[in-house]
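Dear support,

Our group has been running a series of protein-ligand predictions, and this particular one with biotinyl-5-AMP is the one our PI (initials K.S.) wants archived with full inputs and outputs. We had some confusion internally about which version of the output was final, so please treat the block below as the authoritative record. The input we submitted was:
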Amino acid sequence: MSGLIDHLAGTRWRQVDVVESTGSTNADLAVAASIEDIDGRVLVARHQTAGRGRHDRTWTTGPSGALTFSVGVRVGAATSAMGWLSLLAGVAVADALARTTMFDAVPGVKWPNDVLIGERKVAGVLSEYSTRVLAGGSGRDGQAVIGIGVNTSMTPDQLPVPEATSVFVETGRAIDDDELAVDILRELDVELAMWPSRLDELAQEYRSKCVTLGQRVRLVLPGDNELIGTAVDVDAQGRLLVTADGGSTTAVAAGDVTHLRA
Ligand code: BT5
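Confirmed final output from the archive:
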């Protein structure tokens, strides 16, 4: 991975650290760098022992066969467009996968943070916002750490849940984790340059990749409430707009989607 930084010249990614093993790259990066220094940093772990998903869930990858890394972005005060960070990272992964490998099915994004091949999850994104004290205690500023996990070479017996898949399982081909990381990072750099000022263009790209839109869905919302309806669009906050059978439309900021078959 030492050569990885050479392939990122001209992008915002100016420091890439690689560790053999750690608990969670998201947890580490959130505290490793100062707020003044976090922007443009990347932390890659060859092996992650306490990977995090959303809502205190775990991201399990085993000893090999996965790409796990986090990036830091200094974002200032939380904006209403914060929800878009996960969405655009998912698009970057789907795009990079589509370019790197030959799949029978085109990789797509499932709102909010899954990358799917067919109906199965090949990658997940966890975006976390926090504020940090500035050097000298002269105030606070905000940062986002975006974590990406891709099942690259995992064999069928290494997949942690039946809904998971890997690039290897789908294509029978091994994939170079470093090359994929470079591709995702280059893509993410372009998208972050458009965030949050050019959300319309990002939304257009997201719509073209999102397999949730147009589908009949069941959403489990925080607090275990349930919503069934048709996913019609995403809004400027990255929320999923769901029209229930009665005709009312709800904007959903967080939740788990199941695609229902018509
Ligand atoms: C996610 O959460 O999908 C976010 C995954 C983010 C992982 C990256 S790796 C680098 C960085 N450092 C971290 O600590 N995290 C980030 P969520 O949508 O909540 O999905 C979690 C659920 O996916 C789990 O409850 C399992 O059901 C399933 N799952 C766990 N490991 C998986 C895997 N390797 N592949 C597919 N599904 C998995």
